[in-house]
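Incident review: delayed structure delivery

Summary: a single-chain prediction request sat in the queue longer than the usual turnaround. Root cause was a stuck worker, restarted by the on-call engineer. No data loss occurred. The affected request and its eventual output are reproduced below so the record is complete for anyone auditing the incident later.

Affected input:
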Amino acid sequence: MLTKEKALQIKPLLENEEFCKELMNEATDEAQCKVFLKHGVSVDAEDLKEIANAIDSSVPEEDDELSENDLENVAGGFAGTLIVVAGIAIVVGLILLAYVLSEIKKGTSQAAIAKAVQKKMKR
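Output delivered after worker restart:
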């Protein structure tokens, strides 16, 4: 389980473009955990799932309106926002990739994997 302290260590990493690129290059939970450890944060596969869920829940749905706080955060500039959004997209993509690879290892059919991924993307 992610502690508040660990979450505070992870947040700046996920905002770092180089870290996100490095994380994106790894396809397994074990390899992704090693990337975090290389940057001074020890995580396990369960932590990776919690990180993915936190990112997933923080990304607004297309129909959601931005709050005043969101609008103030965007006011900082397009480039900074773009980097953060790109980092989140990379992490979400990595997590989905790890999920797909784990399902392939289990022998799950392509159709079942595609259906599960679509369901996760709609959340």
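Verification: The CA atoms of residues 23 and 82 lie 18 Å apart.
Action items: add queue-age alerting; document worker restart procedure.
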